[in-house]
Fold this sequence. Notes:
Low-confidence stretches: none
Shape: globular
Order of helices and strands: EHEHEHEHEHHHEHEHHEHEHEHEHHH
Largest sheet: 6 strands, parallel
Strand content: 15-25%
Number of strands: 11
Structural class: alpha/beta
Radius of gyration: 21 Å
Number of helices: 16
Amino acid sequence: MKVMHYYTYPENAGGPLTYIRNIIVSEYLSDIEFSVCYQGKPASQIKKADIRRIISDIKTFSPDILHVHGVQSEGFIGVYAGKKADVPHILMTVHGLQIDAQNINIIKRMLFKYFIEPYALRNSDAVYCVCDEMARRPYIKKHSRVLLPTIHNYITDKFLKMQVEDIGDKSDKTIVATVGRVSYDKGMYELEEVIRSDTNDNVQYWVIGSGEYEDKMKSNLSPQIKSGKVIFWGQQKEVKAFVAKADIFLFLSHHENLSIALLEAASQKCCCIATNVGGNPEVISTDIDGILIPPMDAKSALYALNKVIHDYEYRQELSNSLYNKVLSEYGEKTFSKRLLTVYSSMATQEMR
């Protein structure tokens, strides 16, 4: 079986790219011949020549299945190119929707809502989401030709076995880490408020990632950076060393599917505090294996932080519980078995 993945460009450091790379190297999927077709540039810069090149790349590999990642602009282009290349089967994974973004104008939002994203969904032979919350949305159900059961994001065996790199001696302070794109949608404005409001000198904040809000955030937190209250580590190829040394993982995203960073932090026994959005409540149950808080609510975030910072036994109870859940329910072997079933069913046309 030949499967080609379609995504924007290899320089993209987002979750879907990590997702694709993990699939390609998985020992559980080694019988499949994989390839990747990269769009090569943002959709706004795509020309007719680029579309022809993409179609040619797909035809050259001649996949049984074109696995398109993302319903947004890249999803539209990938599905269109797959159709033109006469790929037998197109599979769509929904990693997020552009209509959920908070930084697009009304005209662009309407274009995505009524044309771009419906086209990508309707013209895929099958669709699956990475969290149940997305799969339950009427918008997804309405436009998907065949909506498959959720295949949750997962944590790889490689990550679990990876040796923790040395990033220096661990601070004697309580480390609160966040991993992800430094953007408004990821709750970085609320994180700023939390840091400025936190008067506990025994707490240090780590921001791992980069993004369009990074420079502004650094400027706003200049005093806290100078005092050592917060450290910006930038984009990191591997985050295990950082979450392994952190005590608490703070995840303040305004909207989400199912965060791989959240699963990775949980696997390192971080106590996790996350917003009650998307797939987060599918992983975390408040006061059992973490704490869920409302999105865009810095006061609730600070309250939850103080609760776990000042009660070590409670923090350990939550982190140990989530650690056990993630290892048992979100492993690579379970994910690969489900994905292989989808690939095999599509290839034998059992879904049509």
